[in-house]
Amino acid sequence: METRETSAIRPVDIHPVRYDHPDAVALDALVQQEYARRYGDGDITPLDPGMFLPPHGLYLIAYEGDRPLATGGWRVQEDAAEGYAAGDAEIKRMFVLPEARGRGLARRILAALEADARAVGRSRMVLETGTRQPEALELYASSGYVPVQKFGLYRTYDDSRCMAKPLVTAG
């Protein structure tokens, strides 16, 4: 999977990578700093590189030349005890470097993740974000996500917001 945008600067390509790829690790460290700045601590959700291996997930990085600018992944998540449902795919680690924001990279990554999850038979994309990320809430709402009953590790937190979008239409 590869998507391409031609900007006035340089083309931006989106490539699948392993979650433990050095560029993914570096971007994950930056997103953790962002979470700590906004919430006082990083995301403690346990993640393993194997969770993002096709067909059970996918991890993407947007590159401008060899410079990583943005990231995002999805993983199968169906743990009913934590509020997930059969067929769920969960978005994780959506992040765009501050200097690359406003270029539509998060929207492109989100669309590619949805298409991939749909192609392997996932029926619903879910995500958890927080009230201190208004730009994330806006991105997801404008991309067709709606609030749902809370799920996952942060389901008891007041500032947590859970959203979902069907990946298949009722036939």
Structure description:
The chain has 171 residues and is α+β, with helices and mostly antiparallel strands. The chain has helices at residues 22-39, 105-119, 134-142, and strands at 3-5, 12-16, 57-64, 67-76, 88-96, 124-130, 146-147, 160-166. It has an eight-stranded mixed sheet with strand order 1-2-3-4-5-6-8-7, sandwiched between helices. The radius of gyration is 15 Å and the shape is globular. The chain starts with a strand and ends in a 5-residue tail after the last strand. The model has no long low-confidence stretch (mean pLDDT 93).
From the structure above, extract its key features.
single chain, 171 residues, alpha+beta, eight-stranded mixed sheet, 3 helices, 8 strands, 30% strand
Name the assembly state.
single chain
Sketch the topology as an H/E string, one letter per element.
Answer: EEHEEEHEHEE
Q: Name the shape in a single word.
A: globular
* Radius of gyration from CA coordinates: 15 Å
Query: How many runs of DSSP E, i.e. beta strands?
Result: 8
Strand content: 25-35%
Strand order of the largest sheet: 1-2-3-4-5-6-8-7
Mean residue pLDDT: 93
Q: Percent helix among the residues?
A: 10-25%
Spans of at least 5 consecutive residues with low confidence: none
How many angstroms separate the termini? 27 Å
Q: Structural class per helix/strand content?
A: alpha+beta
Please count the helical segments. 3
Major sheet characteristics: 8 strands, mixed
